[in-house]
Specification:
Blueprint: H1 4-35, H2 46-73, H3 76-92
């Protein structure tokens, strides 16, 4: 109830807030691009796909490891960050 356990709860709430802000920003950008009259399509190359695939694999590994350690250490902060990292995987897709 005191010390770093209290900090972990506050940090988990802060990470949740960042996730909410990121979600709103992603949705806002999607709607702006969807309804824009003069939007140019992004240029995507083979290198782009390779970088995205590597990013997805690394983020999935980090998220899995953080989740495993959060259960082992009973850490709310690691659990929240594992979910935050997993959102990066969805954002990459």
């Amino acid at each position: 109830p005191y010390g770093h356990r209290k900090f972990e709860a506050v940090a988990a709430i802060v990470i949740s807030g960042f996730m909410a802000v990121a979600s709103v920003e992603i949705l806002t950008e999607c709607f702006q691009r969807l309804f824009a009259k003069q939007s140019s399509p992004p240029v995507v190359s083979v290198t782009s796909y390779l970088i995205m695939a590597l990013t997805v694999l690394v983020n999935m590994g980090v998220s899995y490891y953080e989740h495993k350690k959060s259960v082992e250490l009973h850490s709310q902060l690691l659990a929240a960050d594992a979910k935050h990292t997993l959102t990066d995987v969805f954002a990459t897709f």
